Amino acid sequence: MGILKNKLIEELIRCTHCGTCRSYCPVFEAVKRESWGTRGRIFIIEALQEGRIDVDSGVLERLYSCTLCKVCEEICESLVKFSDIMTGVRETLAEKSLGPLKEYREMAANILKTGNVLGSKVRLADISPSVNRLPDKSENLLYLGCVVSSSYSEKADIIIRLLQRAGYSFTVLKGGENCCGAFLELVGLKDESREALNRAVSGFSEAGAENIVTVCPFCYGTFHDNLKGKFTVRHSSEIIGELIEQEKIRLERRLEATVAYFDPCHLGRWHGLYDPPRKVIESVPGVKLVEMERSRETSRCCGGPIRAAFPRVRAKMSSRIVEEAKEAGAAYIVTACPTCYHNLKIPSFRHKIKVVFIEELVAYSAGIVDKI
Amino acid sequence: MMLPQEVIRKLEEIVGPENVSVEPAELICYARDFSFIDVKTRSLPDAVVWPTSTEQVAGIVKLANELKIPVIPRGAGTGECGGAMPVKGGIVVDLFKMSRVIELNKVDMWVLVEPGIVGDELNKFLSKHGFFYPPVPASSEMATIGGNVATNAAGYRTVKYGSTSRWVMALEVVLPSGEVIWTGSKTRKTSSGYDLTRLFVGSEGTLGIFTKIMLRIHPLPECRTVLTAHYDSIDDACKTVIDIMSGRIFPSAVEIMDRMSIQAVINYGVELPRAEAIVIVELDGDRDDVERRMKAVKEVLERNRALGVSAGVTEEEQNRLWRGRKSITPALASIKPNVIDEDVCVPVSRLLELFKGIEEISRNLGVDIATYGHAGDGNLHPDILFDKRNPEEVEKAVEAVKMIRGLTIKLGGTITGEHGIGLRRAPSLSMEHSAEAIEAMKALKMALDPNNIMNPGKIFP
Q: Yes or no: is domain B5-96 CATH 3.30.43.10?
């Protein structure tokens, strides 16, 4: 009993079980079983609350396979804040040492041990020759995030060169970043997420930072929501958009292609940043931006947050997005999230569609890279 | 009851191990649907299966029939009368994985689908070809066609196009014995033998499982127009409805909202005039014809003292005018946590008496009832608002339901216009049908399902 605290019980009661969320939950779409969608999870949480079911491995599977993409909140006419319920349940499970799942605990251990969610300790000075040309201190700090710094150093190089070419003055944490802890918060590890955030922020002042520019939408959200009044936090697509507008980035090379933009949950639904990335894409000459059937508020989710524990579900979810882009006639999917990039990349080969970072697209048009 | 391991192994042989679940987390979910049914009445199923072909459905049913295990077919679980809820365990057959469009015939104007396809998905597909399937319910965003057929569902446009039954041409049905039959015909008409199609439509899973459904389709109209008006009195609003229905207007929707529904929607944050009633009329067809009929509607509205008439021609304007009506369900949830949705239907001529009677019941019992619905069909949804944590409120809500159903029968109506009997209305079946009529229904049921395995506990008390 007592899986939810008072405020969240009211939230749970508001659900009328109408099942509209069945038609939007991307995990349900992949698995097609009631228990893997929002309404099913609500049925399970109600049963836990009323003591009608035990916390067994099947229950845990359902409670940790929600990606917290929030699409159910966008379409819920009863205005149920399901992500609050889900996070609340996960916090209780963690308090009672019943959760999170083993795979997530390993990721949490990675974060606290290496500072990177993927478990690799990275010195940024080692990943890109461009880093050494950056000043030691700057009021603008580019924060690459775990995925780019550990898996996509070539993209990091492109982003840094793009900003340098624009004459944007900035630096990075050369000694290495510490994971922002967003993932820990998603799986209900409240104390650990706070600890990770403190570590992540610890180097900011030393680097002279006042403005943080993140490449990763998860970092964007964590810093944006937790560092209000201390730092300004922007996503790289916003900064790049401004530099294009100020003609500091000149987009001269054409790309004659139909392009679909995939909204990352943590930029779009979580923080309302739908338009800045689209504006950037539209400013590339030759590009025709198309919307996928489900875009903006109802866009699907790539499955990133559940990747480690549910790889097969994640694979179906990301494939569906690539199919959707194909249906929209796109030759490229542009994403503003390294995690989405990572997940969309594999199915993209089968569908002969290219997935690119938004920064890469801009760098191509600006003549910084010759191939995308 | 737990299914023996041997039965589960056989089910796995039929549908594949990945399509059978006996996990508590799954069973908990399949014990529920959209309906408000007391926790004590619920029963966990023993297993859930997800077949992907007719042969698999037939295999499951045959096995269940041999072992006399209940079978509960399920679409999206969006029904409000508990039709998809097990009452004494059994196997839930979730048809959601059978959701293909098998064939579209534009010349003969039909589409053959599997039962798990969602209404809006079907209409999205048809619209690409210039057609639509009209009788989908308000829940078409999530409800499946199989569920629509099982409940003889209807919606806004039924007033012009009729309920589901008018659109089902033929069905592939797995009988309770596990045998597979086809009913109906691919032709536009037939007089051949008993009309089994009409028997199966609305049978609520008690006579068999549909595995293929052939639906009539309709060309998309050239245009649609929506008109709304509000009223100082429910009398004028009901008179408007009658005049529109009996005039040469042929509307594709005639909806009504009462004061309480309007109030709830306003509280919910949607802009609406504070009024005794709102009437929404939709017209569809050729542009010049719609314009002619729109003038006729406006005359009717004026004659009946309508206030604030608005018309919506563009899709955006129409969506705005529909928004209040479509927000009622969630808006009511913001007044009281629980709602019992009723589905009574009377001859249109008795609409006003139904409204007045419901108002009296609400006043006498001291229960909030918001009434709205498909006025052109005489089909109203009086929603009784209560808090399930308060036993007195629950008792009054249950009493209100009984009284509203009684009133409906007195007015020559039916206790359900489009939702079905299921579990919730089974105790009231005898209010509407004579003992002999119910015996005739039971005789049909027994002939097809002597072991009573198909969705037991539904329709019959």
A: yes
Check whether domain B337-419 has CATH 3.90.320.10, yes or no: no
Q: Nearest by CB to A53, which of B28, B77, B78?
A: B28
Rg (CA), chain A: 21
A104-242 and A250-365 have identical folds? yes
Q: Where are the beta strands (DSSP E) in chain A?
A: 140-143, 211-214, 232-235, 257-262, 287-290, 332-335, 354-357
Low-confidence ranges of chain B (pLDDT < 50): none
What is A104-242's CATH number?
A: 3.40.50
Q: A35: which chain B residues are within 8 Å (Cβ-Cβ)?
A: 23, 25-26, 28-29
pLDDT of residue B419: 97
Q: Please report residues of A whose CB lies closer than 8 A to that of B141.
A: 20, 23
What predicted TM-score, i.e. pTM, was given to this entire model?
0.96
* Contacting residues of B for A19, CB less than 8 Å apart: 33-34, 76-78, 139, 142
Q: Using a CB-CB distance cutoff of 8 angstroms, which residues of chain B are in contact with residue A50?
A: 39
In 3D, which of B460, B340, B357, B341 has the Cα closest to residue B412? B357
| Interstrand relation of B168-174 and B180-184 (parallel, antiparallel or unpaired) | antiparallel
pLDDT (tens digit per residue) in A235-267:
999 999 999 999 999 999 999 999 999 999 999
Q: Are A45 and A90 in contact (CB under 8 A)?
A: no
- A7–B contact, CB cutoff 8 A: no
Does residue A312 sit at the B interface (CB-CB below 8 Å)?
A: no
What does the domain layout of chain A look like in residue ranges? Answer: 6-99, 104-242, 250-365
Q: Which CATH class is domain B98-219?
A: alpha beta
Q: Given the structure tokens 């309709």, which residue do they identify?
A: B218
> How is residue B73 annotated by DSSP?
E
Q: Does B104 touch chain A (CB under 8 A)?
A: no
For residue B333, give the nearest of A14, A43, A44 by CB distance. A14
Structure tokens at B31: 């014990």
| pLDDT in the model for residue B1 | 59
Report yes or no: A201 and A195 within 8 Å, Cβ to Cβ: no
Q: In terms of DSSP bridges, do strands B91-94 and B71-74 run parallel, antiparallel, or are they unpaired?
A: parallel
Chain A residues closer than 8 Å to B43 by CB: none
What spatial distance separates the first Cα and last Cα of chain A, rounded to whole Å? Answer: 54
Encoded tokens for A150:
């550990």
The 8-class DSSP code of residue A264 comes to P
A29–chain B Cβ distance below 8 A for any pair: no
Cis amide linkage into residue A100, ω under 30° from 0 = yes
Query: Most A CBs within 10 Å: which of B28, B30, B93, as the mutation test of the A interface?
Result: B28
Residues of chain B with CATH 3.30.43.10: 5-96
Type and span of the H or E element at B174:
strand B168-174
The verdict on A74 touching B (C-beta cutoff 8 Å) is no
Portions of chain B given CATH number 3.30.465.10: 98-219
| The CATH number fitting domain B221-335, selected from 3.30.457.10, 3.30.70.2190, 3.30.70.60, 3.30.2310.20 | 3.30.70.2190
Tell me what ipTM this predicted complex has. 0.95
Check residue A255 and give its pLDDT: 98
Q: Which CATH class is domain A6-99?
A: mainly alpha
Which candidate, A346, A357, A260, A316, places its Cα nearest to that of A67? A316
CATH node for A250-365: 3.40.50.10700
DSSP β-ladder status, B218-219 and B209-216: unpaired
**C-beta separation of B92 from B26 below 8 A:** no
Contact B170, B193 (CB under 8 A): no
DSSP state of A267: T
